[in-house]
Amino acid sequence: MNRSSSSPFSAPSGRPSLMGVTFAAIVGSVLVLVAAVLFALLPGSLSEAREFRAARPCAEAAAPENGDCLSEWPATAVSTDLGRKNKAVTNWVTVDFGPGQERSVRIRMRGSGPVWETLAPGDRVTALTWRDRLWGLEKGELRQDTTEKPGRTSTAQLALGLALLITGAVFLRGSGWLHRRRAIGAPPARTSQILVPMAATFIAVGIAVTAAVATDRLWLVLLTTAAGCAAAWTAAVLLVRRLGGQRTS
User: Fold this and answer.
1) CA 227/CA 221 separation, integer angstroms
2) Considering Cα of 192, then 194, then 199, then 201, what sign does the dihedral take?
3) pTM above 0.90, yes or no
4) How far apart are CA 63 and CA 162, in angstroms?
5) What is the DSSP string of the chain?
6) R_g over Cα of the chain
7) Residue 96: which residues within 8 A CB-CB, separation 6 or more?
């Protein structure tokens, strides 16, 4: 006589499995935890970015020796080269500050901007520094940032943190939803009940990342993100209901 076997991870037909509920909860918790770590490190990066934007040229500063002002140093371009790792391409410039200065410095530029594209060995350039960072190069009227320019780290942290927080929250919400369906023996979820919330999540993440990149005002980023999430998920709920889905709350 055949006997059906069961395990803690199996579920009656039509009910979400315990493994699916557990997996969603673990993934959501990990994503939210990583987002919390990024947000905990964010105040320092934001403070540095604000101080950089408020810095004045050393010619106007009362105490230029403290390094908090914006300095300009004449230099000569030695070479430009491309770095390749997998499919990533990086743009490098090596400059020499002349006798009495430290060794030549190899600088990673942000993209292939106007300075890097027109620079040739022997060209005179101006190195822009703040504190211990060489954040930009000037050639005549052209200017291009380096990857050391303050503000880049805070933007990346904020964008990634928001993306992880939104996605993690959706996984945790989905875990609770699956758990309730499992408890009441609900029928299998409709396709629209899965795909529509996923699409709404991608839209909400896109809005958050775009806001983080477009502006350095934290309150505006958070306000835009909250409005985007509310609009995306409200539209998702209405669409699921319209397509015959069940209430997820």
Assistant:
1) 10
2) positive
3) no
4) 39
5) -------TT---TTSPPHHHHHHHHHHHHHHHHHHHHHHHHHHHHHHHHHHHHH--BTTT-S-GGGS-SEEEEEEEEEEEEEEEETTEEEEEEEEE--TTS-S-EEEEESSS-HHHHH--TT-EEEEEEETTEEEEEEETTEEEEBTTSTTHHHHHHHHHHHHHHHHHHHHHHHHHHHHHHHHHTPPPPPHHHHHHHHHHHHHHHHHHHHHHHH---HHHHHHHHHHHHHHHHHHHHHHHHHTTPPP--
6) 26
7) 75, 76, 78, 104
pLDDT digits (tens, 9 = 90+) for 113-130: 888 889 989 999 999 999
**Token output for 14:** 């039509």
> How do residues 20-60 score in pLDDT, each as one tens digit?
778 888 999 999 999 999 999 888 888 888 888 888 888 77
pLDDT(186) > 80: no
Characterize 59-93 residue by residue with b for buried, 16 or more Cβ atoms within 10 angstroms of its Cβ, and e for exposed.
eeeeeeeeebbbbeeebebeebeeeeeeeeeebeb
Distances (CA, A) of 196 to 50, 156, 229, 243: 39, 28, 14, 10
